[in-house]
What does this fold into?
Amino acid sequence: MLITIKWLLICCLIGIFSGSASALFLVSLEFVTQVRIQNTWIIWLLPFGGLFIGYLYFISDSKIAKGNNLLLEEYNKPEKKIPFLMAPLVLLSTLITHLFGGSAGREGTAVQMGGAIADVCSSIFRLNHSERRTLIILGISAGFASVFGTPLAGALFALEIIFFSRINFRSIVLSFLVAYIAYFTVEFWEIQHTHYSIPEIPEMNFTALFWVLIVSILSGLAALLFSRSTHLWGKLFSKTIKHPPLRPFIGGIILAITIYFIGTTKYIGLGVPMIVDAFSIQNAPYDFLLKILFTGFTLGAGFKGGEVTPLFFVGATLGSALSVVVPLPIALLAGMGFVAVFSGATHTPIACTVMGMELFGMESGVYIGIACIIAYFFSGSIGIYKSQIVKGPKSILYQSIRKKGLKYL
It folds into this structure.
């Protein structure tokens, strides 16, 4: 009985504090985004914002810079407590990134805040390594569910991302509980999430299935390109610029000049307006490629944020662009791409399928489910999280491919 009360209390603490942190983050993110939109000249300050972020992380605990990968590493091999400093540091750094025009998301920030907040309970309640694993799952679940307004997907995402590590039944139950507490906490603060709609769902037949498979495969390849691009830029900056704080400074200079010359700001920030428009307006075939380039470069240079909202952008605009040749409703194509690219890049097809149904309605479930699973298998062996353990059928498939010499996958 005491154990049950203890974990209920822990879930309430993590859910309320993580949800409140996400609410603060979402309000602040909207504020800095509006400031940037109304003062586009501020983008020229991006290098100095990057320099500030670089030094913040340079003088702090070196583990913090690992971001989401630190949470996965601590889950797989619990050793040291996740520094609470991670929460305010990633919050401030992400807001600076978006204020000055970097291309990044928000899930990484919410998940890292949730993980750091959750691990505080390990000291308060004197938890052992096994119990700390559960805490990390709860932090990820609370952060994801609260920032996107999808509690079921948040709980499943936290479980699925560490699926091939040891999970106990307690973690599964508590993951759903904390996700809903965090979700309702954000609702309590009256924070609005973006809503999407797929008004027309055609009947599934062999013709429709053929086109779904084509879109799904392309979404998986887009996810592969996104993941490899982000890792590539990170390695390139690490090799060519030895002093870490200078990486986002130089990256900021290049980004600011590039944004000036292309003459548009639609590929920076979260890109939510572009995502919403993709459900009704056909996108250019290069929109998703430019978002991959801008986001990979931004994060690779050392700016902070997440990858998931840019993944939504990539998927939705890819699906929208394909509407010129694929005879399916544009909103359905955008919706499939939205979650399928996310599924491939994070290796979480179940969570992404549920997320699609939470966002777009149960009627789209068959299309969304097929898209997420196919994209998952076509997205390569490495996703956006380097420390994620990938096993099962996908691992066997890519081990076989590598033996045949196709190592680029």
User: Anything to note?
Assistant: The mean pLDDT is 93. The radius of gyration is 20 Å. Residues 2-38 form the longest helix (37 residues). The chain has 17 helices and no strands.
